[in-house]
Amino acid sequence: MDRQVSAAILVIGNELLSGRTQDVNVQTLAKFLAPLGIDLSEARFVPDIQAEIVAALNALRTRYTYVFTTGGIGPTHDDITADAIAAAFGIGIDFHPEALALLAARYGETDFTDARRRMARIPNGGNLVKNPVSIAPGFQIENVFVLAGVPRIMKAMLDDIAPRLQRGRAKIVRSLTAQIRESDIAHGLEAIQKAHPDTDIGSYPFFNEQPSSPETGQSSVGTTLVVSGRNAGQVAAAASAIANLVRGMGVEPQDDGQTAAR
Amino acid sequence: MDRQVSAAILVIGNELLSGRTQDVNVQTLAKFLAPLGIDLSEARFVPDIQAEIVAALNALRTRYTYVFTTGGIGPTHDDITADAIAAAFGIGIDFHPEALALLAARYGETDFTDARRRMARIPNGGNLVKNPVSIAPGFQIENVFVLAGVPRIMKAMLDDIAPRLQRGRAKIVRSLTAQIRESDIAHGLEAIQKAHPDTDIGSYPFFNEQPSSPETGQSSVGTTLVVSGRNAGQVAAAASAIANLVRGMGVEPQDDGQTAAR
Asked: Does the beta-carbon distance from A44 to B47 stay under 8 Å?
């Protein structure tokens, strides 16, 4: 249970790099993996170019426990992910009987065009990933999960993946927010980080961008301090030290609570 | 003018990979670069670990014309970007006189703490990037631009960078939206892509997620077809062929117009 389980996400598509589309799949995957104790350790965005997909996938799949890809599994000519995955693994690709059956049932004999059949092309040995939204499946090859790019479909596919994943020990995360500039507590914070080496302390300033008080909705300048670690006692001790540091500056921190999720 | 100018973005910070924060800087940078004719070709997200930042930066800076980093230049212990950049280039890092002067003027003698002085540490030979929001500067070393992570500050820093960049020939982009399933036009679209090889045709389906008609606000299923290229005539010809393809299916496409921006 204590083994570190790691993951990377490979976001595929010109539309993410051109600025046309705002990616949200990285965050969705991060939030999905955190409670499973799987650390999302890297994300890469590449365009719809086979050589780029292959190089990135091979770099990531040999380094992390799991790789998740998003995008490029639709019916059109610019959907090249399945072929790129097959090329990366050096394996063939063909129509997958179960995927064909799923799509045939959805579209019926007359509407099951070649373009739709194309979505049943799966690298040899791939296991399907269920798509409850629009049927056309994703797939798994070894430690690589190939998912849709449309956020709603990508998210729905995660349900079918969860039972297949080896789990780690989830990080415990404690978050405190204070109306204090981070540079005013930087020195004390560094000392606390040194005294609690098995925790990670992150400092995230905000500037009139989020209300520090949900009751009044008043915007302000402040800092959110996030402690994470795999041991609840260590996280609580570091958070307590941070709360005392902030109180020492005459400011009462707002306790955002503890999550095992992120 | 016709030389291809390329770029990558390196997004630095545990908070992006833990799911705590939704990145928006990739899209901001993409939209900034597109009208300058600079192709954003890759994005990578790495955690606050020096070895990861160094490895990613060295891979990217040797491959692309420019690299932009975001995050990790604040006053706290978890802000390690400046040191990581110096390590990646194998150069020293020290207090930068101009950065010190800027910060001293902002905070005054008594409030200019060690933590704030830390934000004036710049790798040797670095040129400052102006921060009109919170003063603490970014910097440029060779082809690498080091920017803040806070979206408002990151965006403001781009003003100071624009004049330093070599420009390419901007892509011309034409976008058409139709209430048609992409699998129904996939075959015809592929033929159009083959007939117009100097353009890139992207097909982006939507499912009850955006109104196809801004007038009625009615949601529906459909596809946005995006043609891009560096030659206006070629883009117009491909877009015209796509419009005719869609009309041939009995659907009038909505012309989303042409941009030189993305």
From this structure: no
Residues of A in contact with B113 (CB under 8 A): 183-184, 186-187
Return the CATH number of the domain spanning residue range A172-259.
3.30.70.360
- Per domain, the residue ranges of chain B are 5-164, 172-259
The domain defined by A5-164 carries CATH number 1.20.120.530: no
CA distance linking residue A71 with residue A79, whole number of Å: 8
For B179-230, write each residue's pLDDT tens digit.
Answer: 999 999 999 999 999 999 999 999 999 876 555 455 555 557 899 999 999 9
CA distance A258 to chain B (A): 13
CA-CA distance, A36 to A38, in Å (whole number)?
A: 5
CA-to-CA separations, B165 to A101, A193, B240, in angstroms, rounded: 53, 39, 34
Among candidates B234, B108, B42, which has minimal Cα distance to A55?
Answer: B42
Quickly state the pLDDT bin for A257 (edges 50, 70, 90): confident
Q: With contacts defined as CB-CB under 8 Å, which chain A residues touch B209?
A: 152
CB contact under 8 A, B43 and A44: yes
Q: Where are the beta strands (DSSP E) in A24-158?
A: 38-46, 66-70, 93-95, 121-123, 127-131, 135-141, 144-147
Are the Cβ atoms of B15 and A152 closer than 8 angstroms?
Answer: no
ipTM: 0.93
In terms of CA atoms, which chain A residue is nearest residue B136? Answer: A183
pTM of the model: 0.94
Q: How many CB pairs below 8 A link A and B?
A: 192
Nearest to B26 among A23, A46, A79 (CB): A23
Residue A12: C-alpha distances to residues A33, A41, B15, B150 (Å): 20, 17, 22, 25
Fold equal for A5-164 and A172-259: no
Binary contact (B42, A41; C-beta < 8 A): no
pLDDT at B55: 98
Helix (H) or strand (E) holding B84: helix B81-89
Of B41, B44, B186, the CB nearest to A115: B186
